[in-house]
Amino acid sequence: MHGYMGKILRVDLSSGKIQVDRVDEETLRKFIGGVGLAAKIIYDEVKPEFSPFDPENRLVFMTGPLTGTPVPCTGRYVVCAKSPLTNAWGEAHSGGFWARELKRSGYDGVVVEGKSEKPVYLLINDEDIRIDDASELWGRGCLETEELIKKSLSGEFKVACIGPAGERLVSFASIINDEGRAAGRCGMGAVMGSKMLKAVVIRGTKEIPVKDSDRIRNILRRIYPQIMSFPTTQIHASYGTSGELLSFYEYGDVPMKNFALGKWNEIDRISGETYNAKMVKSKRACWNCPIACWRYVRVDEGPYAGLELKRGPEYETLTALGSLLLNDRLDVIIKANLLCNQYGLDTISTGVCIAFAMECYERRIINEQDAMGLSLKWGDAEVILKLIEAIGERKGLGDILAEGVKRASEKIGMGSEKFAMHVKGLEMPMHDPRAFTGMGLQYAISNRGACHLQGLILRVEQGERMTDLKIYERLDRFEIKGKGKVLATVQNWHEVLESLIICKFLGIPPGHMPGLYTLTTGIPTTLEQMLQAGERIYNIKRMFNVKCGITRKDDTLPYRIMYEGLSGGGTLGNFISPEDLNVMLNEYYAARGWDENGVPRDETFKRLGLLET
Amino acid sequence: MPLGSEEELKEDICKTMRRLFDRGLISALGGNVSARLPGASEFWITPSGVFKGELTADDLIKADLESRVTEGFLRPSVETPFHAIIYKKRSDVNAVIHSHNPIATGLALAGIQIQPVTVEAAVVLRRVQVVPWAFPGTDALADLVGKHIEGARALILMNHGVIGVGSNLLEAEAIVETLEEVATAQLVAYLFKKELPLIPEKDMELIKRLYKV
Fold this sequence. Notes:
Chain A is α+β, with helices and mostly antiparallel strands and about 625 residues long. In chain A, about 40% of the residues lie in helices and about 15% in strands. In chain A, strand 1 (about 5-10) and strand 2 (about 20) form a beta hairpin.
């Protein structure tokens, strides 16, 4: 077998049993690897009645066939489980070096089940696999945990761990690896915490078998002039993801004041240009990445002078902890990012929850007494930092917010549900769908809830053609019709990317992937077969959600997006009414072969070879 | 020319690419070449996005007349659809070159028609039509090329490049090369003079009447 290690490690924390599962080639052909293989495992093994914190929930870490190969930008992993935010499908992705290490230890993935009675960490040192006591680490921050573990072991180990937020089952707790890379979304850190698993620590020394690495290198060398010319790749290389902030702002895509403001005079203060000029000290890259979108940052002046972050804020963090809260101070964003990394909190969900609290306060739904004596004023640095701590510690108002904005708004009530910005329970990412209606459909329909990455249809709405996927025409960003089929296509493609696993920031066109996959694995594959695998993966996740009770009623958007247009700014007052959303959903369901309730039809499952699953 | 094997054809495609690259008619990222054995329903085409100056035979992709890949690993040229449509419409054509001739493309941008300034220009190129803008790699562009290719040996694609076709690769190469030669001469002439001294009518009668140049 090439490309794959052919083995998946299965760890039962209840019994302490460790076993190795083999993966057959037929399954790999159907689900590729990465998120596809994780979806198959979870669909088969996690019953709908299991709660996310049930020991029977599975936490699946997975690499892909391209992970750690000569193909660039393949240092990422995916982690999946039933999500405590949505009670349905959950997945999160992260870059760095940990994924390659996992694969080099001899495994394509790790499935964690059961629950330990005491805090433990999983140590994978090639064949030597142990479940070690983590009592001394419990309660410690992620960055500190990583440092302590590395100090205690001889040799080069990579660490993915949770912080106090995961231990306390904060619904949007993240998993942090490689000194600040985050598998942020969907509360995977909380599922890890529920199993009392503090960290997965790996050292791998095996060769990853590649069918024809010389040929791959030879091809890659010659496609670099094109892939590095991809516009977003260039911007990410120059500025990191923050380089798109002002461009997104012009579209009205950057959320401000909990998605209630169309223009903000301070936006330049957190732009990629300002950030790079004032805070960024150097560029860093994940394993084998020519783009290097990470930014090493240091605060030179003010109350946080001397503060350094090896993985500085990305676009989503700059906006979720910046413009969304009307916070125009980069030093505060960096400090807040550090706190989130230490507690192990998703910066997007954290920002949305704090914005929600601030709006509750502004509307006098809550007062100082409810908020630990704090005046929750927009942009207030102290408030932002204290609320992050309160969420991480689950104290006071933080304990309510720690449940995620959906449940927090249900608890607080008084109409606050109308400005709780989430879909299916997952907090909205930092792209306002009123700027790109296709993103509205994408948020409404995505399996993990409000997801900006599964499809990235806004690129087509910005004018990118994807001729390999037969997307020839630009979609008007405010148009409602014509988006369903295109979204289904780009979502299928993104399932392929997340299964292979390769970073979306690299502009390798889809047409090159079958060749790279074939030369890596020795399994001949066409683009059509890959796209069908993507469709299969998308559908199996949807069916998992259907079994968890998700139907058309859940494929919706926050009230604010459906009823409130913004005055000023690039959205030009656009909003996506329920009627508009219905038009898009009908078109989308038809393109997917789902019934009017959003359930995959039998013939769709049959066509995709899923009926026997 | 005797009928060669597919392997020879693939080698010839790569040689053509290298010559065009060395001449500056195909750039590192722009341009593509395809060819088929006479009468074949499939053709070999260069890959997309792979540095054009160093292509080897095992980089090529085989596609059918519906643009479906039947052999090869790499991403086929995004312009495969217009290559396919030309082979579909023109059974006499066995080689298609899409090059990025800078001067011919530039003249079209300036709204200047290719004129029969040399005998070769008239004889080799016939009448060179300009295909209106369509986004590269789309079916829309392929349809437009299909509409203009009847009776043509060369076309200019607005804001894009040129197409030359032939019964074999050398013929198609001669077309795009001649087109650039003529365009360059025309450009130089325009730099110094507004009216071009065309070849006397009596020397061009047959060609002009046949080709309507």
